[in-house]
C-alpha cells in the first residue's frame, strides 16, 4: 500500500466546541506524519491561539479569515450547528478551496466539524480526491470516502444508513478511537487495578465553561478523607483556574495541572476519574480507569449512556442537573465497593486497545492503492 503524502485537516476549536475535535485530529496527524505525510491544518481565525499547539507538533497551521460580522441568521440549508461558523458554509468552502490551492495537490482532506456536511464536502471534490469525515452525531449527510465515528452508540451500524455515498467505508466504534500513542504505550505497562481508590483524577477536558471541576472538588472535599490524593487537570484557557486553584489549596493532597501534556501518565496513576464524555472517555477506557461521568454537551449523552450500559462508567446525567451530593454519594459507594470499581475498569478496558489511530491510517492507505 502507498503512504499518504499530503493531508489537509479542516477543524476548529473554541470554548463552545471544546478541544476534542482538534485533539483527535492531532492524534491522527501525528500518526500520518510519522508515516511520511505532510500535514496542514485549516482553522477559522478565531482559533488563532491554537496555531502554536499545531506547529509544535510539526504541522503547518493556516487561518481562514473571519468576517467582520456574523451573518444575521444561518442559511436555511445549514446544519443544526451552523452557528459554530462565523460565516456561511459556502464561504467557508470557498476559503478552504483557496487555501488548498495555495498548499498544492493533496491526497486527503479530513473534516471534523459539526457545521459542515455533504454540500461543503461536495465542493471540496474539486481539489480533494479523497475525503475522510469525522462525525459523532449522524444528523447530516456526508460526501466522503471514509466516515469515522469512534463512539459507542446503540445500533451504531444503522446510524448513517442513507447518509453516505454507496462507496463510502464507515469506520465505527471505539476500536477506531483516535488516541495519542502514549495511551497504547501506558496500556502495555499497566498493572492490574485492584479497585481500591487512593488517587482520583478530576478532568473535564480542555474547556469547562460550567466549572464542573469545582463541583467535583467540592464533592470530594465533603467526604473529609484527608488521605485521598487528587490530580486536577484543566486546560490553559479554563476561565475558572483561580477559583479551582484556591479549592486545591484547601485539600491536603490535591495538585493542579494546568495545560497538562501527560494525561496518559495521570490516568495511569489514578484509581478513579471524575469527568465528562468526549475523547477522554476512550482515553480512560484504554487505561482501564473507572469513571464517574457527566455529559457537558448533548453529543456526549449517547456514548455515555452506552458506556454505562456496558458497566464501564457511572453516568450521572447532564452536568447542570447533577449536584455535589450526587457526585459525593456515587464516589462514596465506589470507595466502599472495590469489586464494583475494579469491574468497571475491566469493562472499560475491553472496549479500547489504543490502536484505533493506526487502523484509520491503514484504511486511508488502502484507498490510496485503489
From TrEMBL:
<keyword id="KW-0378">Hydrolase</keyword>
<protein>
    <submittedName>
        <fullName>UDP-2,4-diacetamido-2,4, 6-trideoxy-beta-L-altropyranose hydrolase</fullName>
        <ecNumber>3.6.1.57</ecNumber>
    </submittedName>
</protein>
<dbReference type="InterPro" id="IPR020023">
    <property type="entry name" value="PseG"/>
</dbReference>
<dbReference type="GO" id="GO:0016787">
    <property type="term" value="F:hydrolase activity"/>
</dbReference>
Amino acid at each position: 500500500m502507498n503512504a499518504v503524502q499530503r493531508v489537509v485537516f479542516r477543524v476548529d476549536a473554541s470554548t463552545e466546541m471544546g478541544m476534542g475535535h482538534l485533539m483527535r485530529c492531532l492524534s491522527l496527524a501525528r500518526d500520518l506524519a510519522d508515516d511520511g505525510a505532510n500535514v496542514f491544518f485549516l482553522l477559522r481565525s478565531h482559533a488563532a491561539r491554537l496555531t502554536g499547539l499545531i506547529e509544535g507538533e510539526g504541522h503547518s497551521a493556516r487561518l481562514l479569515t473571519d468576517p467582520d460580522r456574523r451573518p444575521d441568521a444561518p442559511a436555511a440549508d445549514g446544519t443544526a450547528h451552523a452557528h459554530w461558523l462565523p460565516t456561511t458554509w459556502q464561504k467557508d468552502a470557498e476559503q478552504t478551496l483557496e487555501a488548498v490551492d495555495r498548499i498544492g495537490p493533496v491526497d486527503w482532506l479530513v473534516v471534523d466539524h459539526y457545521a459542515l456536511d455533504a454540500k461543503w464536502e461536495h465542493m471540496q471534490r474539486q481539489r480533494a480526491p479523497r475525503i475522510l469525515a469525522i462525525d459523532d452525531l449522524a444528523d447530516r449527510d456526508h460526501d466522503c470516502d471514509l466516515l469515522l465515528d469512534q463512539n459507542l452508540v446503540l445500533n451504531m451500524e444503522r446510524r448513517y444508513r442513507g447518509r453516505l455515498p454507496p462507496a463510502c467505508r464507515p469506520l465505527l466504534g471505539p476500536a477506531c478511537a483516535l488516541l495519542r500513542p502514549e495511551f497504547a504505550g501506558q496500556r502495555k505497562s499497566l498493572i492490574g487495578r485492584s479497585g481500591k481508590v487512593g488517587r482520583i483524577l478530576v478532568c473535564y477536558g480542555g474547556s469547562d465553561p460550567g466549572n464542573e471541576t469545582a463541583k467535583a472538588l467540592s464533592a470530594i472535599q465533603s467526604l473529609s478523607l484527608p488521605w485521598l490524593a487528587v490530580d486536577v487537570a484543566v486546560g490553559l484557557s479554563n476561565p475558572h483556574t483561580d477559583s479551582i486553584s484556591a479549592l486545591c489549596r484547601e485539600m491536603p493532597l490535591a495538585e493542579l495541572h494546568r495545560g497538562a501534556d501527560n494525561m496518559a501518565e495521570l490516568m495511569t496513576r489514578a484509581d478513579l476519574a471524575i469527568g465528562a464524555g468526549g475523547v477522554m472517555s476512550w482515553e480512560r477506557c484504554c487505561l482501564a480507569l473507572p469513571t464517574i461521568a457527566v455529559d457537558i454537551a448533548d453529543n456526549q449523552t449517547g456514548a455515555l449512556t452506552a458506556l454505562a450500559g456496558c458497566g464501564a462508567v457511572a453516568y450521572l446525567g447532564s452536568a447542570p442537573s447533577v449536584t455535589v451530593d450526587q457526585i459525593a454519594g456515587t464516589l462514596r459507594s465506589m470507595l466502599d465497593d472495590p469489586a464494583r470499581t475494579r469491574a468497571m475498569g475491566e469493562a472499560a478496558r475491553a472496549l479500547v486497545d489504543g490502536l484505533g489511530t493506526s487502523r484509520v491510517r491503514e484504511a486511508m492507505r488502502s484507498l490510496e492503492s485503489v
